[in-house]
């Protein structure tokens, strides 16, 4: 299978560093499919205020630690090239540096991308690190469906 069969890429592992200016939100994990896009839309209304923005939207998620872990914290915002002197009101700077397994595809296939990545982890005897954020980076595509790259932190 080639690397871009049907717009779907293979899973890969890399050490990455992310810097972003974000707004913090929280809610029930089961409501994330609704809450995260709402938070992202709210952020975009003020997104033009972010200095050093890359223009790429990002979401950082606290991993679910078990069945009894019902509510989590997540962050939505823009990746930035470097930390700004001033942060817009209500926003914070966040950095994440770790080894991640990643996959890229259409945002419409988000659930499937997460499933494939988790299956790949177990098939390759890799474990998710629950001490680091799960990260999604959104890539706008002219006249096409937006793409997303999902990064799951893994234990070294």
TrEMBL record:
Residues 16-155 form the GyrI-like small molecule binding domain. Signal peptide: none annotated. SUPFAM superfamilies: Probable bacterial effector-binding domain. Pfam families: GyrI-like. Transmembrane segments: none annotated. This is GyrI-like small molecule binding domain-containing protein.
